[in-house]
């Protein structure tokens, strides 16, 4: 395997923490530089404090470590972004432009830019939303992701920058807490369940959304980045699907392991965001181009989440 020097921006986030470990296992600890706004603890490899809004600082890190791949994970998510739209837009777009420009100027091998199902709005097909669907998002997060997808495509076609992207559904993992998204309930609910606490959900019982378990999300990301460039037909962002479920269905799955688990529902402003998103995703392009295939369904994910969190909290299921 050829030598890669990889920079992860946002390595302290929900996906970044897990992806950093996975890439270090694949490429070696010293080949993966983890960066975030704040110091990162317990790192097996090198790390940097980096604000991706500072283009000069980014360039210095890229030069210092002879970076040839960047995973740009830092972003303000859907629910958090709605509290201050201009701030979220500025951070999401300026940081992306800095990454794209350094990739163009220094001819980096690859860039990874995560997108989201937030690119879809109420005008999109609600079931089996296709790859090439109208994109009229209803959050600043979604707007920034649509813009980012188009800029990624532009930099690929105009400058030959090999930018790759996935439209993540809700990501569920036990390794860290989520960071302000509309699908956060699907992580929180397991933490409450394992501690024998009732959970009050901010979405209604029947709100079905596309979801993906963290091991599948990490594997999909790496598989896309490892795929031969000539196999990739999508240079905006690939639809990605794992499973679709509602809060009520998660609670039912948890009760198979913990029969006394209790849930109530008190929808807040995030309900309107969720209602604008698809209930299921057609990811046939990813399956065709680079053989994507999820491994976890809801019950398999629930069993593993509860097992992993039981270890974390020193509890028993």
Quick structural summary:
This protein is α/β, with parallel strands linked by helices. The protein has eleven helices and 14 strands.
Structure description:
This protein has 317 residues and is α/β, with parallel strands linked by helices. Helix 1 (14-27) links the parallel strand 1 and strand 2. 47% of the residues are buried. It folds into 2 domains: 6-169, Rossmann fold (3-Layer(aba) Sandwich); 171-211 and 242-313, Alpha-Beta Complex (UDP-galactose 4-epimerase, domain 1), CATH 3.90.25. Helix content is 42%, strand content 14%. The chain starts with 5 loop residues before the first strand and ends with a helix. The chain has helices at 14-27, 55-65, 78-81, 85-106, 140-159, 185-194, 214-226, 247-255, 270-275, 284-290, 298-313, and strands spanning 6-9, 32-36, 47-49, 69-72, 110-112, 115-116, 163-164, 166-168, 170-172, 199-201, 209-213, 238-239, 243-245, 263-265.
Layout: helices, strands, pairs:
Elements: E1 6-9, H1 14-27, E2 32-36, E3 47-49, H2 55-65, E4 69-72, H3 78-81, H4 85-106, E5 110-112, E6 115-116, H5 140-159, E7 163-164, E8 166-168, E9 170-172, H6 185-194, E10 199-201, E11 209-213, H7 214-226, E12 238-239, E13 243-245, H8 247-255, E14 263-265, H9 270-275, H10 284-290, H11 298-313
Parallel strand pairs: 1-2, 1-4, 2-3, 4-5, 5-7, 6-8, 8-12, 9-11, 10-14
Antiparallel strand pairs: 11-13
Helix pairs in contact: 1-7, 2-4, 4-5, 6-8, 6-11
